[in-house]
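# nightly structure sweep
# worker-07 picked up a monomer target from the shared queue
# config: single-sequence mode, recycle default, output format = structure tokens
# input follows
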Amino acid sequence: MSRPKSLNDLERPLIAILRGLRPENAVAVSRAIFAAGIQAIEVPLNSPDPFCSISAMVDALPDAMIGAGTVLDPDDVKRLSDTGARLLVTPNSDPAIIKAGVKQGLVTLPGCFTATEAFQALNAGASGLKFFPASIMGPDGIAALKAVLPSNAFVAAVGGVAEDDFASYVKKGIRAFGLGSSLFRPEWSADEISERALRTVAAYDKALAGQDR
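# output follows
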């Protein structure tokens, strides 16, 4: 897999969300996920010592798009950039955080739920939009909002989405996803996470193949 410079460069627009990841497991887990075919990985900042994990992952996987989620403090944006990470994900649409991320040259994916939040994020320079929680909006809700956004806007469904849901979203034109507890839990071994990642990638490829026929 080539090194993605933007969200649109990802071979599969899937983002692994490793909430609760411990630093001692960071490299093994991220390598397992990357080897399965998922290039973008985020460690939410409410995880144990997240910057330690992120830094180790950046060093171990230079061709992956590594970053942080749940970024709420502008001071953490610079700290994230200093690790060499390239991805900044937020649960909300805070223009100050987005602009700080853009200034640091980070790929920014803020969370939104309404058209107002989505356009606010894009106007602040967001690289893409994370519709969250997707389980509440559903494919129809996200598709309705996507219809009024710029046609080239990167839109991801995040929150309560697992491999069994891909097909229903893909049918509505939504092809990017953030995957959390269906893919990773802190107590799972790297081997189990690898199996889940491989299964997730296979389900994603099958959903796309079914839609493209």
